[in-house]
Amino acid sequence: MIPWTQLGSAQIPNNGGELKFSQRGDEFSIRLSGIRGELMNSRLFNSEKVLAELGCAHLHFTDNAQVLVGGLGMGYTLAAALKAVSANSQVTVAELIPEVVVWNQGPLGNCAKNPLEDPRTKVHIGDVRALLKIRKPTFDAILLDVDNGPEGLTQKDNSSIYSPQGLEYIYKTLRPKGMVAIWSAGPDHQFTLRLKKAGFKAEDRVVRARPGKGSRHTIFLGRKP
Ligand SMILES: C[S@@+](CC[C@H](N)C(=O)[O-])C[C@H]1O[C@@H](n2cnc3c(N)ncnc32)[C@H](O)[C@@H]1O
């Protein structure tokens, strides 16, 4: 068996620990230090891709669509969002950890076919929460995969995104008929209710980690009327 080789590491802000980036043959892994396990593996990306397909399904015929993706990870959600929108649209990807962007500019880029090189991609290095707080109708779709789900994981601070106030900000930052799509490792009935309370037409979908097999993930969808 080919051994893993560590290619890089990065500190997560606010004492969030360390990210470790490794390669084994053509497989890449980003792990969280300590016992918190694997954040992403390059072979498991179906639900990350479907997140963008569901979140951008209403944008196929939209001119100048504006999409926000948070965060970059291995680029699969970004690549699927670019595929879903028109040639004159823009997809802004917010990534908290600068090294993750550098890894995607290097060996990791091939996994999702180098979405950072697409001229429609705009990179925001920093916290996606700054863009969610714009509170003026700005984006037609907001695709969030920054955590394990509404419970948080990478950043404790991220839990504010899923709070009633966080959802109010997202609602205001979406354009009319805009969609928020949120990746989660599992269902959370309370969160679906919170989306509804915030004014969204909400539903959740179960999506497998690999097409037709693997772990069952949840994608929460909230449509602004
Ligand atoms: C699970 S990965 C995303 C995977 C991505 N959907 C893909 O297709 O590869 C989560 C990413 O979100 C980033 N992240 C975590 N919190 C963030 C925040 N508040 N703002 C921006 N990026 C964040 C992490 O550094 C990590 O790169």
UniProtKB/TrEMBL annotation:
- Domain of life, per the record? Bacteria
Query: Entry's Gene3D superfamilies?
Result: Vaccinia Virus protein VP39
- Asked if the keyword Cytoplasm belongs to this entry, the reply reads no
Q: Which UniProt keywords apply?
A: Polyamine biosynthesis
Database matches in Pfam families: Spermine_synth (PF01564)
Write out the GO biological process terms: polyamine biosynthetic process
Q: Which PANTHER family does the record cross-reference, listed alphabetically?
A: BLR2883 PROTEIN, THERMOSPERMINE SYNTHASE ACAULIS5
Q: What is this protein called?
A: Parallel beta-helix repeat-containing protein
Task: Supply the source organism for this entry.
Answer: Paraglaciecola arctica BSs20135
